Amino acid sequence: MKIAIMGAGGVGGYFGGRLARADQQVVFIARGAHLEAMKTKGLKVGSIKGDFYLPSVTVTDDPCQAGLVDLVMVCVKTWQLNEAMQAMKPLIGRNTLVLPLLNGVEAYDQLKAGLDEGIILCGLTRILSYIAEPGHIQHTSIEPYIGLGIPGGGHIQRVRTVCEVFKRAGIKSEIPSGLPEALWAKFLFVAGWGGVGAVTGCAAGVIRAIPETRSMLRQSMQEIFDLAAARHVQLSENMVDQCMGYIDKMDPASTTSLQRDIAAGRPSELESWNGAVVRLGKESDVPAPVNNFIYAALLAREKSSLKNKI
């Protein structure tokens, strides 16, 4: 299978590396120092599932050089999606599968509206990984997982084929019966924890140990739970408790990408995390006071940091 990895960061670099190692025809779309390192030194992946090194990979910053592919795995940050959609068009023909592996709950609709060709899948991933240095991906925790499908069904055999390709590469993969619910469950977890972590500047161990921040985290997640219900996505009744229990078991030093990006003054996924809770909450008439506070506080901080870097 010919596969393009649109965005070779922590997620795309890890999954693309696994697929290339399993002899799939993989082309990475990357840029900057990461691109140059992969061109000259290949790709190194450190992982709790086993380290590996690919001395040579196919990588470019120009999708036109790759041509049409069978599958595009979209692994950019949410704030990069509009630009990525324009860039990836040379990769996509009428029968190309497009699999978004982004945070948030809006990527499928954005791709449906922004692409003229291709079969848009709904995708979900679970993994904690990042670029340790150019050409080096580090996977630190969570069993790597990809869930995929098409809302309402369709192209089921092709989706199954992609699942099998992933599995042969050592990636846990399935076609979940409740993909929208799974997407919203992940959204509840990452937006709740990420927003509270970013606004407090504290790691998971501190947030869960202090009653005030623990309560703030629970309230943020409950608002997202209520929003999902208002948008006809019914999560399990104990979903907030499950997420809190998971955070209680995490490495106390754990943080989210949102928190790290805000702290470093980089563009973040704030708009598609807590910002989306605020925006969709207004659409659905669901109050979200905690997420409103988180969004307003972080938006001011992010805009100030980015302005100072210009």
Unreliable parts: none
Overall SS class: alpha/beta
CATH class (first level) name of the largest domain: Alpha Beta
Number of strands: 11
How many DSSP helices?
13
Report the CATH architecture of the largest domain.
3-Layer(aba) Sandwich
Largest sheet descriptor: 6 strands, parallel
CATH-defined topology of the largest domain: Rossmann fold
Residue-averaged pLDDT, rounded?
A: 95
Trace the largest sheet across and list its strands: 5-2-1-6-7-8
How many angstroms separate the termini? 42 Å
Question: What fraction strand?
Answer: 15-25%
Q: Tell me the Rg in angstroms.
A: 19 Å
Helix and strand succession?
EHEHEEEHEHEHEEEHEHHHHHHH
- The domain tally reads 2
Q: Bin the helical content.
A: 40-55%
Going by CATH, what is the homologous superfamily of the largest domain? NAD(P)-binding Rossmann-like Domain
